[in-house]
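[Q] Does anyone have a clean structure-token version of this?
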Amino acid sequence: MKHTMIILDKDLQYADKAAGYINNRGGFPFEVVTFNRVSEAREYERKAGVDILLVSDELSEELKDREITDNTVILSGSSFVPDTDNKVIYKYQSCENIVKELLLYASGKENLGNLISRKSRMKIVGFYSPIGRSGQTGIGLSTGQLLAKNHRVLFLDMDCHSNLKDALGIRFSGDMSDLIYAMNNDSKDLATLIGGISGSLGGLDIVPSMERHADLISISYKEWQSILKQIEYRTDYEYVLLDLSKAVQGLGKLIATCNKLIVTVIEDDREQGKLKAFLREFEEDGNASELIKKVIVPFRQAGDKEKIFAATTGEAGECAKEIVKEIVA
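[A] Here you go.
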């Protein structure tokens, strides 16, 4: 998942040089972008979100009324420390020292510290099909169980009218609505909360969808984005698998945040038009070949679905193994 730091400085040459060093350094979990105007930085934050704002002391004066983010660090051009509650870093020192100070700063922040302690960024894998009854959920659960043998994996059911609870026969203490409520009310121990409301299948943690269709479609893309960020910030999950549906607001944007999208299909000529139309949307953006893995599910009749639902052996297991290889590559 992408995390961003802005360097906001009137001296764009300085900002670009620092950004170039940090982006090429490695070991820093933020992509750095630069601006020399407050208005441009605000517009970027509005569209894409920002995790850390590193702003020069002269431009910080323009942010007193409306800060771009709570995680604001002042880049001071003098040894004089400005009168501020924010972290201050001296501008004219080596870029390496600036990085070290930023890492120390982030490690002490509740909503950033987990990013620093991670060995690698959390990966998001979507499962989706424009064709109904294509084995999407079953393949996703099969993949998740195999992946969970060596990794911490969370499966989020984002399907409308989902029957996952009944199909799995697992007792759940809550669902996606509880997770969203906790996010909106700033629940401190998110990992414990997920452990409480989720069920487990072969080591895979599963949060079921809402019971009411209206509740699911009311969740905005920004809320979904926030949920995924908070899971990465505040838990140790290495992979989050999304069981997507057309009911999800901002589906295209959410798919674009995935590291990989598994598109399940059946060999049915009548449905190929839907699949081609869906794939064209991503081919226009030029990232379809990298993002999408098309998977033909190992069943042909709707009545055979129960034979592979959440299976880790047989044809379904072999199919899931190939997906796992693709994900962890």
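[Q] Thanks! Anything notable?
[A] The chain has a mean pLDDT of 84.
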